[in-house]
Amino acid sequence: MLAMPRNAVIGVDIGTSSSKGVLVGLDGTLIRSATREHTPARPGPGRFEMDASIWWREFIELARELAAADDTTVVAVGVSGMGPCVLLADERDTPLRPAVLYGVDTRSVHQIQRIEARLGADEIMRRGGSALTTQAAGPKIAWIAEEEPELYARARRLYMPSSWLVRQLTGDYVLDHHSASQCTPLYDTHTREWYAPWAADVAPGIELPPLRWPGEAAGTLTPEAARATGLPAGIPVTTGTVDAWAEALSVGAQNIGDLMLMYGTTMFLIHTVPEPLTSPSLWGTVGALPGTRNLAGGMATSGAVANWLRDLFADGDHARLTALAAESGPGANGLLMLPYFSGERTPIMDPDARGVIAGLTLSHTRGDLYRAALEATGFAVRQNIEVIEVVGGDIRRVVAVGGGTQGALWTQIVSDITGRPQELRAITIGAGYGDALLAAQLVGDASIEDWNPVRETVTPRAEHTGRYDELYTLYRRLYPDTAATVHALAALQER
Length: 495
Known about the structure:
This protein is an alpha+beta fold. The protein folds into 2 domains: about 5-245, Nucleotidyltransferase, domain 5; about 255-425 and about 460-495, ATPase, nucleotide binding domain (Nucleotidyltransferase, domain 5, 2-Layer Sandwich), CATH 3.30.420.40. It has 17 helices and 25 strands. The strands form 8 sheets. It has a 7-stranded mixed beta sheet. The longest helix is centred in the last third of the chain and has 30 residues, at about 465-495. It is globular. This is Sugar kinase. Belongs to the FGGY kinase family. Pfam families: FGGY_C, FGGY_N.
């Protein structure tokens, strides 16, 4: 007798450097995973873009590969993606230009200044939860309106990677509340609705999408999408959200006092708080679950610097470089790095910051450089944590997730530098797994504690505290000591 196929869900996340999909049983078992790599376009200094056709094409490829398992039946789909991004489409839902990506794209500095002059910086933070920075979607929309007015005149709808997938899969035009809360200044974090006066000011003519929570069903798979993807027509699709928030759900880091550290192309931090907290150095948002609030931070690069170093060395690969970095030892033999290779987001909020490597000698090795990059992430995490606590955050537990947790060295370095233990769950594959959890909750009961228990805890090593405290003091001094020089160099790079 043939065995009956078991029910499963698919989760797909559109990231900065790849799209990742997972096929997961309703009990949380990871059945299959797949990846498609891509590279954002960089049409100029400080500009990062991506064609939305990549998102849909890679979703189709991932869905067909994952659903090819003969012993499973896909019963729901969850989606997420990098954000906040700005994809503008016309009245027929045809994209008008490549999407402008999140805070790694720093083109909107002048628009920020003009919007603040009109609306007031303090009022923007009070209503929107965050200072206006190049992370926010609002100034990116304003940049397109000012710099490409003929194109903008045809714009009618706003999409992000997750909501674009939802549109292709279900035909529905929706966005989740969390993504909307990163559209500063278009969203009111107190009323949890679009704020019409500021939307009309910053994004005139755009029909902003109806809002739902990430785990709510956006709609069901259309027959056309079923033919394209090979998935069953009529199955529910989640509304979805920004990748970092799906990643937090994938490891259960959504309780009051939790701090998620996402080790990826960029480093992201999400702290769940009981009441709204604001800081000009962080982002105050609504959470992925109804009623939750977050204080969040994010670096512009982290794993991206490690990838850059790998690519510089002809025979470089991460496993080899990690082994060499471990031999280098704490302090990278006197090297110190500022990881601001694409500007920096929190807490310095400086799009014109640039990477600095201090202390180089002819005796330094590839392992020293790679170690300095990993330690730079640790110092940046420590600085973000300090800002979170200064404004009232209460970090009770740190949970790590993402591809960078696969090797023990990086997480150990961050714990040593911050003095914080980090929980690692059994599955740290990331946002796609969180997407799958939300999809499973559409069709039944699913709990992350049952799906993904704690596997180990990385504890700080006391013998390294003194060295890293000394280096952290130097790290904090290095940015202000070099800022004028790197700003001048950033200006030259714009020419």
